[in-house]
Amino acid sequence: MISAQSIVALSSGRLPAGIAVIRISGPRSRFAIETIAGGMVKDRVATLRKFRATEGSVIDNGLVLFFPGPGSFTGEDVAEFHVHGGRAVSMKMLETIAGFDGVRHAEPGEFTRRAFLNGKLDLVETEALADLVNAETEAQRRFAVQNAEGAQSALYSSWRRRLIHARAMIEAEIDFADEDDVPGSVSDAVWSDVRAMIGEIGHHIDGFHAAEIIRDGYEVVILGAPNAGKSSLFNALARREAAIVTDEPGTTRDLLEVVLDLKGMRVRITDTAGLRAAPGKVEAIGIEKARAKARGADLLLLLEDMVDPVDAGLVPSDAQILKIGTKADLVGGQQLAGGPKDYDAVISTRDGTGLTDLLDDVARRAAAEIGRAGDILPSRLRHVELLDETKGFLTSALSGHGQELRAEELRLAADRLGRIVGAVDVEDLLDVIFSQFCIGK
Ligand SMILES: Nc1nc2c(c(=O)[nH]1)N(C=O)[C@@H](CNc1ccc(C(=O)N[C@@H](CCC(=O)O)C(=O)O)cc1)CN2
Ligand SMILES: Nc1nc2c(ncn2[C@@H]2O[C@H](COP(=O)(O)OP(=O)(O)OP(=O)(O)O)[C@@H](O)[C@H]2O)c(=O)[nH]1
Ligand SMILES: [Mg+2]
């Protein structure tokens, strides 16, 4: 598909910058180079040229590249002008190119949309490209680049191929039911492969929580009785005075959150109101919020003042729990070693005791949840929903009666996988997916 309209945008970031890249895709790319750079350049080779405005004045000295379609990012002819990254320079270039007949400013994600429509990327790779551009942590980048390169798509495509093969076998059996040369063991093999796929898809779906942790962060909630030292730990982890600390019990009422990059992983830490019976009105609301937050957490840090231990009570949650003794600086060494309480960690925000070990422990637990680098995980709820439907059709195909019906269910299952990668009927999804991009991508 070659669009009649060419599109232009600033494809590099915020101005001013050292260099800015102005990119045009579509049939007017060639004309833009001829007009602005005074003549065509060699394909795919950076060439230094003077760039001139329509009336002939010099805009800048810069590098220009031409990528002939279909061998380009978008699949169309593409030109790039690399200019000095000033605001006025970039605006003059954009204005000049958008002033040509048949050229308009690109919408967000429109270059990538053309790449998708021209078959350069599938839908999952497109989503991964959006993730790559938005990646802030090393774990997010690793995950996104692997999927942008097609790892996730390859998995779905291989399942889809297996299903198409399975269905062909079952339909052949229907067609040749009366003949002797289609052995029954063929259909046994097919259904045992379908059973295996149900297991593989189920296992893959289970990985979604790991993908959510990579994207949204590993959720750590600090809990404990009033004055246990929660906000002091929170501030130490945030490396700033993010929360108010006083010696008055009941200082913190609202949830406070910081996001850390811990060894390349996104980790969200929440400070909460001290848990106690018979609190004041505002505090009671804070305590309810703390309990609700704890329910959705991955890890609870349950703090207790070792000088004045108060049982904060149990909080229902599936999260892992680390019991932490605080204010170690106030407690003698022997007391700690032989004390009645068992703590997973002992810290002091006063003298820094145990903080590095605690962070290491949190990072280890987050890494264990994320799984091994290279694991292929579903990266969108959209994928999980379609995978669930796929699994549902496979399950009823497996236990169903009548070869025709069962073959039809295999078809429906393969169709759902096709929807994930965009091989079938996805027009309705495109606007949602491309709205995740910035202009120029
Ligand atoms: N200057 C610049 N840097 C960039 C991009 C770009 O468009 N321009 N990219 C944009 O996102 C990324 C690189 N991605 C690209 C992907 C495909 C093709 C391309 O021309 N593909 C052809 C031929 C491939 C080949 O020669 O092996 C093709 O797919 O047919 C170019 C860039 C990151 N860096
Ligand atoms: N000596 C010592 N004092 C600490 C330490 N951590 C906190 N404190 C003190 O303990 C008191 C309570 O600390 P906070 O961090 O506000 O306690 P909190 O758990 O957030 O309390 P609430 O918000 O009221 O629930 C303050 O006076 C802190 O200075 C520590 O490691 N050593
Ligand atoms: Mg507090």
Automatic annotation (TrEMBL):
<dbReference type="InterPro" id="IPR005225">
    <property type="entry name" value="Small_GTP-bd"/>
</dbReference>
<keyword id="KW-0547">Nucleotide-binding</keyword>
<dbReference type="InterPro" id="IPR004520">
    <property type="entry name" value="GTPase_MnmE"/>
</dbReference>
<dbReference type="Pfam" id="PF12631">
    <property type="entry name" value="MnmE_helical"/>
</dbReference>
<keyword id="KW-0819">tRNA processing</keyword>
<dbReference type="Pfam" id="PF10396">
    <property type="entry name" value="TrmE_N"/>
</dbReference>
<feature type="binding site">
    <location>
        <position position="120"/>
    </location>
    <ligand>
        <name>(6S)-5-formyl-5,6,7,8-tetrahydrofolate</name>
    </ligand>
</feature>
<dbReference type="GO" id="GO:0005525">
    <property type="term" value="F:GTP binding"/>
</dbReference>
<comment type="similarity">
    <text>Belongs to the TRAFAC class TrmE-Era-EngA-EngB-Septin-like GTPase superfamily. TrmE GTPase family.</text>
</comment>
<feature type="binding site">
    <location>
        <position position="252"/>
    </location>
    <ligand>
        <name>Mg(2+)</name>
    </ligand>
</feature>
<feature type="binding site">
    <location>
        <begin position="271"/>
        <end position="274"/>
    </location>
    <ligand>
        <name>GTP</name>
    </ligand>
</feature>
<keyword id="KW-0630">Potassium</keyword>
<keyword id="KW-0378">Hydrolase</keyword>
<comment type="function">
    <text>Exhibits a very high intrinsic GTPase hydrolysis rate. Involved in the addition of a carboxymethylaminomethyl (cmnm) group at the wobble position (U34) of certain tRNAs, forming tRNA-cmnm(5)s(2)U34.</text>
</comment>
<dbReference type="InterPro" id="IPR027368">
    <property type="entry name" value="MnmE_dom2"/>
</dbReference>
<dbReference type="InterPro" id="IPR027266">
    <property type="entry name" value="TrmE/GcvT-like"/>
</dbReference>
<dbReference type="InterPro" id="IPR031168">
    <property type="entry name" value="G_TrmE"/>
</dbReference>
<dbReference type="InterPro" id="IPR018948">
    <property type="entry name" value="GTP-bd_TrmE_N"/>
</dbReference>
<dbReference type="InterPro" id="IPR027417">
    <property type="entry name" value="P-loop_NTPase"/>
</dbReference>
<feature type="binding site">
    <location>
        <begin position="246"/>
        <end position="252"/>
    </location>
    <ligand>
        <name>GTP</name>
    </ligand>
</feature>
<feature type="binding site">
    <location>
        <begin position="227"/>
        <end position="232"/>
    </location>
    <ligand>
        <name>GTP</name>
    </ligand>
</feature>
<keyword id="KW-0479">Metal-binding</keyword>
<feature type="binding site">
    <location>
        <position position="441"/>
    </location>
    <ligand>
        <name>(6S)-5-formyl-5,6,7,8-tetrahydrofolate</name>
    </ligand>
</feature>
<keyword id="KW-0342">GTP-binding</keyword>
<feature type="binding site">
    <location>
        <position position="231"/>
    </location>
    <ligand>
        <name>Mg(2+)</name>
    </ligand>
</feature>
<feature type="domain" description="TrmE-type G">
    <location>
        <begin position="217"/>
        <end position="367"/>
    </location>
</feature>
<dbReference type="GO" id="GO:0002098">
    <property type="term" value="P:tRNA wobble uridine modification"/>
</dbReference>
<comment type="subunit">
    <text>Homodimer. Heterotetramer of two MnmE and two MnmG subunits.</text>
</comment>
<keyword id="KW-0460">Magnesium</keyword>
<dbReference type="InterPro" id="IPR006073">
    <property type="entry name" value="GTP-bd"/>
</dbReference>
<dbReference type="Pfam" id="PF01926">
    <property type="entry name" value="MMR_HSR1"/>
</dbReference>
<dbReference type="GO" id="GO:0030488">
    <property type="term" value="P:tRNA methylation"/>
</dbReference>
<dbReference type="InterPro" id="IPR025867">
    <property type="entry name" value="MnmE_helical"/>
</dbReference>
<feature type="binding site">
    <location>
        <position position="23"/>
    </location>
    <ligand>
        <name>(6S)-5-formyl-5,6,7,8-tetrahydrofolate</name>
    </ligand>
</feature>
<protein>
    <recommendedName>
        <fullName>tRNA modification GTPase MnmE</fullName>
        <ecNumber>3.6.-.-</ecNumber>
    </recommendedName>
</protein>
<dbReference type="GO" id="GO:0046872">
    <property type="term" value="F:metal ion binding"/>
</dbReference>
<dbReference type="GO" id="GO:0005737">
    <property type="term" value="C:cytoplasm"/>
</dbReference>
<feature type="binding site">
    <location>
        <position position="80"/>
    </location>
    <ligand>
        <name>(6S)-5-formyl-5,6,7,8-tetrahydrofolate</name>
    </ligand>
</feature>
<keyword id="KW-0963">Cytoplasm</keyword>
<dbReference type="GO" id="GO:0003924">
    <property type="term" value="F:GTPase activity"/>
</dbReference>
